[in-house]
Specification:
This protein is of the alpha/beta class. The chain is built from 13 helices and 17 strands. Strand 13 and strand 14 form a beta hairpin. The longest helix is centred in the last third of the chain and has 19 residues. The radius of gyration is 21 Å and the shape is globular.
């Protein structure tokens, strides 16, 4: 029986050898840390500290601004120096709390649960909500909302996204190699919320050691299993992962829960374990600094709020000038204009490259080869969608299912004409959705 996968996708250069063998190293930040109040989908958090206040590591500094929101905690002890807009990695100015670390990392006392299995559904959800946990794979959807579907009895699968299909990234890999027990414990806690569900760890087959470790840990767990997946990008995309594991399909008008599934990535599940068992808020995560321009690519256990520059310095700086610096991976990450921006709950990597491969080529006319169609995991026609986007034809763009694009970049990757297909479609998607919100 073949490995489970989906139709379409691509096989970009892996690049993981640069950092996959580097154990996780804790990095203690220095100086000023910046905590944006919008590190999640939904309403921004509201500050509950003032300039001049002394705070401890693990202390709440901002309350959730609504049900679809998430609180923010300080990852260091120190003094609140300012509450003001600061630039973040995507270029936006976001209201933020700035804390000067005192270097002591004096921590609050946490409310540890004696026996997690005796906690009620409401208690588990409340501990996850209070800890400020959001999806740490990029989207930042508040986890307590995701774990509160209207009909929990109809959830059949809890899927741990262990694919880490994005090239160069190795933070999830190191977590699974070094601390797979925490991931399994996080799955156990989530399964307590869904009595009819099975827990599945979806792992690409380029991580045989992770498959072996997780399989051994769940061998005596009747409600858990490991599902080896074909190594292919974007195998870790939510829709692609659900289809590969269950054979069920979802579209842009559906949530995974509509197909009886809930998907969380590795770091999110570990954060759930730390919150429910130990009462620890989300203030740390694993972060990869890599690329051929980096002196010592490696994986760090970071304090959220430290800058990208601190992380690059901790990796020895640049061994050669970087022509491109990317927050995240090369397929779905975005170019950084500065390293003096803060890490957040959803940031997982810094990639520094000596050459910008995309800039080496000039865009030419479409040759109608169909490669973008073959690569698209959503069975779309990206070349046509890009044409409609360039002509601002919203109606035809939507008629050709442009809103179903998952923005994975596979079409741009395979295009021999070097057309920025994914970028054009992504921009038009935003315009169409903005127009719909305006009419609503």
């Amino acid at each position: 029986m073949g490995l489970k996968t989906f139709k379409g996708g691509v096989h970009p250069k892996d690049g993981k050898d640069l950092s996959k063998a580097k154990p996780i190293k804790e990095l203690l930040p220095e100086g000023e840390l910046v905590f944006p109040l919008s590190q999640h989908i939904g309403a921004p958090a509201s500050p509950i500290v003032a300039v001049g206040d002394k705070v401890l590591k693990g202390q709440k500094i901002a309350e959730a601004g609504g049900f679809v929101s998430s609180p923010v905690y300080s990852s260091v002890s120190g003094e609140v120096k300012a509450i003001e807009p600061r630039r973040v990695a995507v270029g936006d100015m976001v209201n933020s709390i700035i804390i000067e670390s005192d270097g002591n990392f004096t921590e609050v006392e946490y409310d540890e649960a004696d026996d997690v299995t005796k906690l009620s559904r409401e208690e588990i959800i409340d501990r996850i909500k209070e800890a400020g946990i959001v999806g740490m794979g990029g989207a930042g959807f508040p986890t307590h909302v995701k774990l509160s579907p209207k009909e929990p009895d109809k959830i059949d699968y809890i899927i741990a996204n262990c694919a880490e299909c994005e090239p160069y990234l190795t933070s999830d890999y190191r977590r699974m190699v070094e601390e797979p027990e925490k991931l399994v414990e996080g799955m156990k806690i989530i399964l307590q919320l869904f009595p009819n569900a099975k827990g599945v760890f979806g792992v690409e087959d380029n991580k045989p050691d992770c498959i072996e470790k997780l399989s051994a840990l769940v061998s005596a767990e009747p409600r858990m299993e490991v599902c080896p997946l074909m190594t292919k990008y974007p195998q870790g995309g939510e829709r692609q992962l659900i289809y590969a594991v269950t054979g069920r399909s979802i579209n842009s008008r559906m949530l995974p829960a509509d197909a009886g599934c809930i998907v969380d990535n590795v770091e999110t599940m570990v954060a759930v374990y730390n919150a429910v068992k130990f009462g620890r808020p989300l203030i740390n995560r694993i972060f990869t600094v890599t690329g051929d321009a980096v002196c010592e690519p490696r994986n760090f256990y970071i304090s959220i709020g430290c800058s990208y520059r601190q992380l690059l310095d901790a990796a020895g700086g640049l061994v050669a000038p970087a022509q491109k610096m990317i927050a995240g991976g090369p397929m779905m990450g975005f170019a950084l204009f500065s390293l003096d921006v803060p890490t957040t709950k959803t940031t997982s990597a810094l990639l520094c490259m000596t050459k910008d491969e995309a800039s080496l080529y000039e865009t030419t006319a479409c040759i109608n080869c169909g490669r973008c169609v073959e690569a698209c995991p959503e069975n779309l026609v990206p070349s046509r969608l890009a044409d409609y986007a360039e002509h601002k034809d919203m109606a035809t763009f939507e008629k050709w299912y442009g809103l179903e694009c998952v923005e994975c970049g596979s079409c741009s990757f395979v295009c021999p004409a070097r057309r920025p297909l994914a970028q054009s479609v992504k921009t038009m998607k935003k315009q169409v959705l903005a127009e719909k919100r305006k009419k609503a």
